[in-house]
Write a structure and sequence with these properties.
The protein is α+β, with helices and mostly antiparallel strands. It has a single domain, classed as Immunoglobulin-like (Sandwich), CATH 2.60.40.10. 15% of the residues lie in helices and 35% in strands. The strands form two sheets. Strands 3, 4, 6, 7 and 8 form a five-stranded antiparallel sheet that branches. Strands 1-2-5 form a three-stranded antiparallel sheet, with no helix packed on it. The longest helix is centred in the first third of the chain and has 18 residues.
Length: 123
């Protein structure tokens, strides 16, 4: 019986660690990424996310859109990776990124350009 309780406690701790849960439940939203940069070369796009002092377990979401208002967008779940590449030839796109923990909401977005005036990139 004692071994079973010890195993259960170990499993609960593993769930808390993997989901970045605290003893009071789901985690708060992580800090917003610091910056996002976008490069275009021969139809390929490369996005780099900078997140100074990124909290352990942070994951990243990238969105791109043909509209600066992001009325419709494509969302990329980028996991823990801070870079992303895709063939985007012939498109003119706007980009933004946010961070999250596996069990949290997204942070506020950081924009390529500014939120009020996102910068378009032509591929």
């Amino acid at each position: 019986m004692l071994n079973a309780l010890d195993d259960l406690a170990s499993q609960l701790q593993a769930i808390r660690t993997q989901g970045v849960y605290g003893e009071k439940g789901a985690p708060s939203v992580p800090s917003t990424p610091t910056a996002i940069s976008v490069a275009a070369l021969k139809g390929f796009g490369t996005v780099a996310i900078t997140h100074n002092s990124a909290p352990a377990g942070a994951q990243y979401v990238l969105q791109y859109s043909t509209s600066p208002s992001f009325a419709s967008y494509v969302e990329v779940d980028n996991g823990s990776s801070l870079s992303w590449s895709q063939y985007l030839k012939g498109q003119r796109l706007y980009f933004r990124a946010a961070s999250r923990f596996p069990a949290s909401d997204k942070s506020p977005f950081v924009y390529y350009g500014t939120q009020a005036n996102p910068t378009a990139v032509s591929f």
